[in-house]
From TrEMBL:
Transmembrane segments: none annotated. InterPro entries: Asp/Glu/hydantoin_racemase, Hydantoin_racemase-like, Iso_Racemase_Enz_sf. PANTHER family: PROTEIN DCG1. Belongs to the HyuE racemase family. This is Asp/Glu/hydantoin racemase. It holds the Pfam family Asp_Glu_race. It comes from Pseudomonas mohnii.
């Protein structure tokens, strides 16, 4: 039986041709033949330019953009998707979105960290947005994995370099290896390439280890976790918690009323959300 996964990026995918195509190709490689990954990005015009990092590095702006992630999750469930997968390291509104949906909700960073814990005792993360280091460190603690994280550090290049690297990757890969060796020296036994574009670039060119230390395909882990959560649900009915402040699901009608009140009703499709 096929699986339909709603992929939600923090980028406006139509603005990023090279990354968009590489992402589609990577999904074809790592997903099962009967898994359909439907790619979605932020609404056109969300950012001032094609680079979301100018907003992502601010907590308040990322919080506001998280409303798109919640709305997209509601739409995914309404359209009959089997899982909703947040495909960005910061994982905006992850716990909030889980509390709104009945289908599995998978986070990119969480999946990577959990998988890393099965590959080594410790892991480190490389990012190209400096300010994300604080958030990723906090996310690791929220996921209960602070003791397994050695360090989050800047990789030594930025988003524009990664986009250019899809055409000529050699120099960027060497710079990544140099940064990874710094994490290894600090005790990391698994390297997580932070943001999804960096992950896709490395995976596309077969970079899966540095000096015997695994370089995790975070997107591959994310896909496989989404598939597994759907399999578990179909096999024995396993579902997310629906109790307590962080997990109890509010009435869908009230969710729509609140989106409407704040002028965001157009972000959610009409009709029953269940």
């Amino acid at each position: 039986m096929s699986i339909r996964i709603w992929h939600q990026s923090f980028t406006v995918l139509s603005d990023l041709g090279a990354y968009d195509e590489a992402l589609r190709a990577h999904f074809r490689r790592v997903a099962r033949p009967d898994t359909e990954i439907h790619m979605h990005g932020m609404r056109p015009g969300t950012y001032r330019n094609h680079y979301p990092g100018d907003d992502i590095k601010y907590s308040a702006l990322q919080y506001l953009h998280g409303l798109q992630f919640m709305a997209a999750g509601i739409n995914a469930q309404h359209q009959g998707f089997d899982a909703y997968a947040i495909s960005t390291l910061p994982e905006p509104a992850l716990k909030e979105t889980r509390s709104l949906l009945d289908i599995p909700v998978v986070g990119y960073g969480e999946s990577a960290m959990l998988t890393a814990c099965m590959l080594g005792r410790t892991f480190g993360v490389l990012v190209f947005i400096d300010e994300l280091a604080e958030q990723v460190t906090e996310n690791a603690a929220r996921h209960g994995l602070a003791g397994r994280l050695t360090e989050v550090r800047h990789v030594g290049f930025r988003f524009a370099d990664v986009l250019a690297g899809f055409t000529d990757p050699a120099e960027l890969i060497e710079r990544f290896r140099s940064a990874a060796r710094g994490l290894i020296a600090s005790g990391a036994e698994v390297i997580i390439p932070g943001e999804a574009p960096l992950n896709v670039l490395l995976a596309t060119h077969g970079i899966n280890e540095v000096d015997g230390v695994p370089v995790l395909d975070s997107l591959g882990a994310w896909v496989k976790q989404a598939e597994s959560m759907v399999d578990l649900r179909r096999a024995n009915g396993t579902r997310t918690c629906n109790r307590g402040y962080f997990s109890a699901q509010p009435e869908p009608e009230r969710v729509r009323e609140i989106f409407d009140f704040y002028g965001l009703g157009s972000f959610i499709q009409a009709g029953d959300q269940a």
